[in-house]
C-alpha cells in the first residue's frame, strides 16, 4: 500500500538521504517533503491528461447568472484541476471557480480531478512524482549541483516516458472543427 511518506522516501532514497517516518517529522527531509508533496502532485496531475485522473460530471446551473457575456454559470467540482475539451462544448470560460457558458443545464464536462490517495495513482505517475519531488528537494537536502542536474535529467526522462505510455492508453481525440473553417467547404 503506497502513501505520501512512501513516495517521499523513494525520492529521498534517490538522493541518498535518510528516510522519514512521517511528513511531520522534525527533520529537514520531512519538512521539505511536506512543503513540496501536494504542490508537486497537483501540478503533475494538471499538466497532463492522466487516464487515472479523468472524471465526468453533469453540473447544475448556478442560481446566479453572470453579470454579462454568458447566459449561465456552473460551479466547478471541489476536486477540479483541469477541464478537458469535448466535442459538445462550444464557447465557455473558467472564471473564479465557475464555468461561464451559454450552454443549458446540465453542463456535461470531462476534467482532471485531484487524486489524493496514492493507491489510485498509476505506477508510472508514482515514478514521475518521485522524480519531481527528488528534483524539488535536491538542493536543500544534498547541497549538490551535480545531484540536482542528475535529478533534473531523471525527472525529464520519467515525464516523457510516463506521458508516452499514458497516451498509448487513450484513443485519439478528434478536434472540434470551427464553423469558420467548415463554412468554406
Report on the structure:
This protein has helices at residues 4-15, 28-47, 123-142, 145-168, 179-182; strands at 54-59, 72-75, 80-84, 92-95, 98-101, 107-113. The longest helix is centred in the C-terminal third of the chain and has 24 residues, at 145-168. It folds into 2 domains: 4-49 and 122-168, no CATH class; 53-114, no CATH class. It has a 3-stranded antiparallel sheet with strand order 1-6-3. It has a 3-stranded antiparallel sheet with strand order 2-5-4, with no helix packed on it. 43% of the residues lie in helices and 16% in strands. With 185 residues, it is α+β, with helices and mostly antiparallel strands.
What are the salient characteristics of this protein?
2 domains, 3-stranded antiparallel β-sheet, 185 residues
Give the overall shape: elongated
Main β-sheet description: 3 strands, antiparallel
Number of strands: 6
Number of domains: 2
Write the SSE topology:
Elements (H helix, E strand, L loop, with lengths): L3 H12 L12 H20 L6 E6 L12 E4 L4 E5 L7 E4 L2 E4 L5 E7 L9 H20 L2 H24 L10 H4 L3
Antiparallel strand pairs: 1-6, 2-5, 3-6, 4-5
Helix pairs in contact: 1-2, 1-3, 2-3, 3-4
Characterize this entry briefly.
It is built from 5 helices and 6 strands; from the N terminus they run ααββββββααα. The chain is α+β, with helices and mostly antiparallel strands and 185 residues long. The chain has 2 domains: 4-49 and 122-168, no CATH class; 53-114, no CATH class.
Amino acid at each position: 500500500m503506497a502513501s505520501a511518506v512512501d513516495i517521499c522516501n523513494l525520492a529521498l532514497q534517490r538522493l541518498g538521504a535518510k528516510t522519514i517516518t512521517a511528513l511531520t517529522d522534525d527533520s529537514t527531509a520531512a519538512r521539505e517533503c511536506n512543503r513540496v508533496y501536494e504542490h508537486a502532485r497537483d501540478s503533475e496531475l494538471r499538466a497532463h491528461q492522466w487516464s487515472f485522473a479523468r472524471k465526468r460530471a453533469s453540473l447544475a446551473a448556478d442560481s446566479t447568472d453572470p453579470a454579462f457575456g454568458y447566459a449561465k454559470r456552473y460551479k466547478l467540482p471541489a476536486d477540479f484541476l483541469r477541464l478537458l475539451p469535448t466535442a459538445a462544448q462550444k464557447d465557455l470560460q473558467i472564471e473564479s471557480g465557475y464555468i461561464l457558458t451559454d450552454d443549458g443545464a446540465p453542463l456535461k464536462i470531462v476534467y482532471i480531478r485531484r487524486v489524493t490517495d496514492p493507491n489510485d495513482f498509476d505506477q508510472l505517475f508514482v515514478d514521475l512524482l518521485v522524480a519531481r519531488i527528488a528534483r524539488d528537494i535536491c538542493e536543500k537536502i544534498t547541497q549538490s549541483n551535480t545531484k540536482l542536474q542528475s535529478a533534473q535529467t531523471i525527472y525529464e526522462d520519467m515525464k516523457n516516458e510516463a506521458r508516452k505510455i499514458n497516451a498509448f492508453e487513450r484513443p485519439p481525440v478528434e478536434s472540434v472543427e470551427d464553423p469558420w473553417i467548415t463554412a468554406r467547404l
